[in-house]
Amino acid sequence: MVQKTETESRKLLGRLRDALAEDSAGQERLDKITHLIATSMGTEVCSIYLFRDEDTLELCATEGLNAEAVHQTRMRVGEGLVGRVARTSKVVNTDDAPSAKGFRYMPETGEEIYSSFCGVPVQRLGDNLGVLVVQSKDKRGYSADEVYALEVVAMVLAEMTELGAFVGEGAAMSALHQQSELFRGTSGQEGASEGHVWLHEPRVVVTNPVADDPDVELTRLNEAVEELRVGVDKMLDGAKRGDKEQLEVLEAYRMFANSKGWMKRMEQDIARGLSAEAAVEKEQSTARARMEQVTDQYLRERLHDLDDLSNRLLRILTGQGSETGADMPAAPILIARNIGPGELLEYGRNLKGIVLEEGSVGSHAAIVARALAIPLVIHADKITTEALNGDHIMVDGDQGIVHLRPDDTVVTAFRDKIAMAAKAQERYASIRDKEAKSRDGAVVHLTMNAGLMADLPSLQSSGAEGVGLFRTELQFLIRNQMPKRTELAQLYARVMDAADGKRVVFRTLDIGSDKVLPYMAPQDEPNPALGWRAVRVALDKPGVMRMQLQALLRAANGRPLTIMFPFIAQYEEYKMARAEVDKAIEREMILGHPLPSEIEVGAMLETPSLGFAPKKFYEEVDFLSIGGNDLKQFFFAADRENERVRRRYDTLNVSFLTFLEGIVNRCIDTGTPLSFCGEDAGRPIEAVCLAAMGLRNLSMRPASIGPVKSLIRRVDLGELRRVIHAARERGEQSVRPDVMEYLRNSG
Questions:
Q1: Helix or strand holding residue 356 (H, E)
Q2: Mind listing the pLDDT tens digit for each residue in 721-740?
């Protein structure tokens, strides 16, 4: 019986292929297809519903229902049995449709005489394109083999829809990947850019969904799967000493690659007439549909692994690797599901923007994007399946919005925004060499954050007075093995050379939390941000810290050196870290190496506890830098990677500003130099408020220095401080409304 069904299925797919190959219009093809399916399956009705927009389905072709209903009958997702299939991406199969849950009668279709109903989703890689329906007068439940055959047909329809086989009049039959699309994500790096799509992993296009010879296709599938298995085993062998998370992913790859159930389903698809590629993509689409429904994080990750593995298998079968031979377009904007720091650095400053489906504001990619000053939007859901190489695209990193194939109105407005930003940059360039001096004569020192040699040219062009934070961990994160001491010493020396005498604050290795080295096993911790990270790792495993300190001392080669330890939470940690510096200096003296002409050893204040450290700590530390990003999340107990709470708490909250003011006063009392480093330092409104509270050293990304300096020069910090204090005295939760009113009135 199964063999007979498989033969009938292959015959049907063969007829579909022939119909699709004919030189005819999209509507004519759909009409032929519904007739073929109804005839082959022995049903009175076959209908195809396609999406006209993301919420509405439209009847586009039918055999059996009233022809006048075509392009007239529409329903919302979730409405009726067809809408239910579209909403759930699951088959609805009933022998009594009128009594089924969610049934809705459409009188214009004449469907009241049909009792049985079977609807299957037409979907490709998780994207719902429509619904395929068969109906009969007899009360009959469609068999599992019949449903399976319909799913195979629906898969072919999805592929042909993707290839533009059914383009016609009206929104439901408009060509895919041609319309303007808006994606709302999250800002990972500010800035606006216009350019053309460059896919990090080009789409695999299945052009031959139907095959003639199942035996040939089975052979192709088995050979490709064997090549895949060998490749996974090699990756596993090479990653035995890698981090635990990477090993888990590769183990999942091996489990799926050797899954008999996965192979059996693809073999069944081929037996029913699909090509090897189409069979793989059918299973991939099913996995993606399940991914949309699953809430358990572990299961989602495993389905994600299966999706990645399917992509690898498709590339083996089609020969469509990441190197397609296509030339990168002018003004390329990178589109990817996610990307590592090393891969991103390979693209370098060629990119005009980056859009990711995943990622986080503290991810390695975000850090590199900031270092390269490239606008970044994360959480742009499903953009990789919609965008095509070369598509016109506009990225608004300030708002976290992406315009794909924008219309003329959007283009005009967006270009106006870019032009205004360019004019502002011209204005900032005119004050580049001037002090950030407020109207009441207070001078605020503005330095830049860096982490790559690529950052250093900005030291001159931005007007920064030095590097207030050089993130040394990036050189560790982008490698597959621990860098050597001599390599680090050479790098740090080049950084000092490029700074040309300006002060560079080197932050020692800050790993853990969201920064896990690919060659160091991570710790399974329930809350990594509060766990074993930064100086805690360095003090417990001091070998790497000692090597890094030696590299810094040798890089200085007689020049001044400034070192800063991250995530110091108590005085004792600073004393232990400072002792390691003293040991390193003593060792260098014994070896006869030149020592820095002077050395400063400071700490980052990122935990509220350090704000209440003993006075002796403040007297002993050479300088303090407030790490605003971490301090803010710990002060408000609000994870900065959690979008639900990240924006809930304002930097200009009275409690937070009062806490900062207390630190300022303690540093004034002990004569301890103090700076503020973080995203808020680069936001002009927040920056002038920080300066008004007494923070006269701010470190930020280079592109922010101009806007911050411009506003500081127009503000009386003494007056602004009084505005802040007055709002606090009135019991306001945030001083932002009062500050904004003051700035508007002061011009």
A1: strand 353-356
A2: 999 999 999 999 999 999 99
